[in-house]
Amino acid sequence: MNQQDGLRFLRKDPILGKIIDNVGDYSLKRRNHHFAVLVESIISQQLATSAAEVIFRRFRKIYPKFPTAAQILSTRKSKLRAAGLSGMKIDYLKDLARNIKEGRLNMKLLSKMSDEEVIVHLTQVKGIGRWTAEMFLIFSLGRQDVLPVHDLGLRKGAQMAFSLADLPKPKELEKMGERWRPYRSIATWYLWKSLQKFDKIG
């Protein structure tokens, strides 16, 4: 399956076809440094984009290059707190690093797992829920059939695109997305882009 096949398939949905025409080429940027993506995801949780970027830059400055799991584990909490990280997020980062160092989380195996296996594998880490795992599937592994039905941006995009009176509930969005299989990630990206609020992520 390739992106052009996906676009041809999704154009069968007339509303999505119009969005594809308006947005233009599909240009999702994959990020291959899997550990860095998870670290940044934890740091960015529940923060405005600008605040998250500042804290992530401060975190990066602690180390000469992006840290390993062992380096994060050995970093004093006070040093991480000085970069702007909350105590809870420090615990999450150290739990991620500990899971990797002790072999419970094998980053090299993720690309060989099914989507659901990746979600189960990642959500064993404190601070990584299903949404974060789904974003990882889309942006890091480039999986093409992920529909993050709890994502507010996707729900808003679907509401506006399909002129729905209310935000679709996750189960409603799941049902709606059945017609986009096996390219639900691409459909998601276009619905995000239709809101014109996605440039920082994708």
- Spans of at least 5 consecutive residues with low confidence: 198-202
Q: Report the structural category.
A: mainly alpha
End-to-end CA span: 21 Å
Q: What is the tally of helical segments?
A: 12
The amount of helix comes to: 55-70%
Strand residue percentage: under 5%
Number of domains: 2
At CATH level 2, the architecture of the largest domain is: Orthogonal Bundle
The biggest beta sheet reads: none
The tally of strands reads 0
Mean pLDDT: 92
Offer a concise description of the structure.
This protein is mainly α and 202 residues long.
Describe this structure in words.
With 202 residues, this protein is an all-alpha fold. The chain folds into 2 domains: 3-28 and 145-194, Orthogonal Bundle (Endonuclease Iii, domain 2), CATH 1.10.1670; 34-139, Endonuclease III, domain 1, CATH 1.10.340.30. 57% of the residues lie in helices and 0% in strands. The chain contains 12 helices and no strands. The protein has helices spanning 3-10, 14-23, 34-44, 49-61, 69-74, 77-82, 87-101, 115-122, 130-139, 152-161, 170-177, 184-194. Helix 8 crosses helix 9. The longest helix is centred in the middle third of the chain and has 15 residues, at 87-101. It is elongated, with a radius of gyration of 18 Å.
